Predict the structure.
Amino acid sequence: MAKIGTTRLDSGWLAARSTEVSHSGTQLTTTHPPSGPTSPWLNAVVPGTANGGLIDSVLATLVENKVVPDPFYGLQNEMIIDIADSGREYYTFWFFTTFQRNQHLDLNFRGINYSAEVYLNGHKKVVPKGMFRRHSLDVTDILHPDGQNLLAVLVHPPDHPGSIPPEGGQGGDHEIGKDVATQYVQGWDWMAPIRDRNTGIWDEVSVSITGPVKIIDPHLVSSFFDDYKRVYLHATTELENRSSWVAECSLNIQVTTGVEGNICLV
Amino acid sequence: EHLQTQHVSIPAGSQLQYTFPECNSVNHQICFQSTCPKLGYAIQSWMYWLVGRGVLLEGVRVSSGMQFHYVLCGLFGRNVIRERLRDWRGDNGMNLQLFFYKPDLWWPNGMGKQSLYNVHITIDVKGYGESDAWSNLFGFRKIESHIDSATGGRLFKVNGQPIFIRGGNWILSDGLLRLSKKRYETDIKFHADMNFNMIRCWGGGLAERPEFYHYCDIYGLLVWQEFWITGDVDGRGVPVSNPNGPLDHDLFLLCARDTVKLLRNHPSLALWVGGNEQVPPDDINEALKVDLRLHPYFENSNEISKSSEDLS
């Protein structure tokens, strides 16, 4: 039985432009998985690599694979087509990977810009809009018993990517403000516009294995009395029982001081 | 160290919110203090003094606190004590907590150490074993701020000490969101080395990531975090656009609430701000103020600590 805990999915990601992939998400995660970084598939920049980066925007993957020049040098940003001119499909991308697991398992996305469809072993789950929200999908029922799971994520750009007037300006034509997304991507006085508006899986992807009961978002608050001599730590957490029976639980909280230097706790 | 275990029964297929109960000594201490505050506080202080000089063991102080409680019950009758305790608790159920005596406090850069504790929460299910675990670094600190009527500026206090804010603007780590721990650590340590004690995350950038806040916790950089509203794009730009902010206000609030849950345990998080050079639309602003207000319990507790300060 695999140990409970969270594992980052940080290797073997591939990416491809959706208009260049003929298969559906169901086919990609059942009968026609991509075999490797062969056209139109590229190696996607992944979390946990040498630079410790997270999975990036579409454009970062294209830059990494030298499909487009690095926009941060010279006027190279002008050589990359803007989403306003290319249309949203041009920057709508598939991300694909595989992972081994067969437990009570959640697939967690800490940030997707801007919406997505997730396919796992042929099953589809929709990830709703919003750049600044986490998504945790209980995929226990659709894992492969042999543990080899195929995951494909189709990521769509913001709904209102806007366009960049010739004079540039703060936030281009401001259309991005209609969405709940970062606004600098339409360019500012200190920044050229980001051509794909940072579409992509822009933060950590992980799988977490739990037993029947899951701890969700604990909240720690401290209150102080007697000139900070008497201090209380208030801990509140959400608990979810995903089994079909009443769970009798022992909930433990332990607070230890961080050890310094070469002292270690045994 | 502090370890507590509670039994919880969770119905099938359900989700509940649970708060850890207090350790008894707090119960008795508070009831004692609430019953006869002046006497209670004087005795408390005397005991802390004895503990501080190693004359009295903390455990003895705690148990004697419980003895006092029984004496009080004898003197005033259990119902009175229970009534006072219930008054003190209030009906918000938030009066449950773990007790620490003179913990190492977390201080911003330049004011002291950034002491952090490991908080580890696990849940074991009967017949299964350990079902889930969560851990987080936590710093004991109290951050207050208010608008100074004389200057119109915002004044900050940390652990009761006024602090002169020396801060810098932060847009984000990389324009293409190639975010990495190594770069976060380098950039944030740089700010600490520049003798800054606050970083302001601009509303046109990101709600910064847990890795960003982790290094701010480590290096003592307070964080002013703005939500995703800017004057230029939301109603004050040229041309004027989006005067009512984003199209989907519910989505904005859902993202804001999830972001607060993601970041709220970091000691460096000092201030949430509606946006850059712009107030969010009224409905969003009001909802954020309600969601982010100090829980009523802490309002009450400030009263108690105030009364104890008055006493001292």
